[in-house]
Amino acid sequence: MSYEPGARVHRLENRESVGASVLAREGDHYLIAYDEGGEGWWPEAALAPAPETAG
Fold first, then answer.
1. What is d(CA 47, CA 53) in angstroms, rounded to the nearest whole number?
2. pLDDT for 16-47, tens place per residue?
3. How far apart are CA 34 and CA 54, in angstroms?
């Protein structure tokens, strides 16, 4: 699945807060802003659509 900047995603990790927003994409990696603060690059395989946006 591909995500556009502004899309809401969940990081596939075992944490209390996993929500994030996509800021940019380079190849199959995404720069995301974490809901709890901060940002980082994540591979597409480690992200899923946020439940509130999943169709």
1. 13
2. 999 999 999 999 999 999 999 999 999 999 99
3. 18
Half-sphere exposure of 48 (CA within 13 A, CB side): 10
| Residue given tokens 């395989």 in the structure block | 45
Whole-structure pTM value: 0.89
Distance CA 53, CA 9 (A): 8
User: In sequence order, what are the beta bridge partners of 45?
Assistant: none
What would the two tokens of residue 28 be?
Answer: 């199959």
Using alpha carbons only, give the angle 18, 19, 21 rounded to the nearest 5 degrees. 140
